[in-house]
Task: structure prediction
Amino acid sequence: MTLTKLQQRHDRRKREKLRKQYLRDRLKEPMFPLAESLANALGDIAPGTPLTAPELQRCLRRVADIRAGKARRSGWLEVMESLNAKQRA
Result:
């Protein structure tokens, strides 16, 4: 069943409202800057990005999975490294 245009607009506005509330609540939590070594290991988050404790915990788990070979490193660093390798060749 497809939603009508009015229902789609309502759903989109509801999602936007929830996202704004999440961002306001996020600012109330203590923030920790992401270390450069972890940012390099993750590849998709810039160094120094402020993270909440749960976000930092998820990042640490991702780093462990990447090092164990369960997940791939992603993001802009991987792209930049591949471009640099092509330029060197």
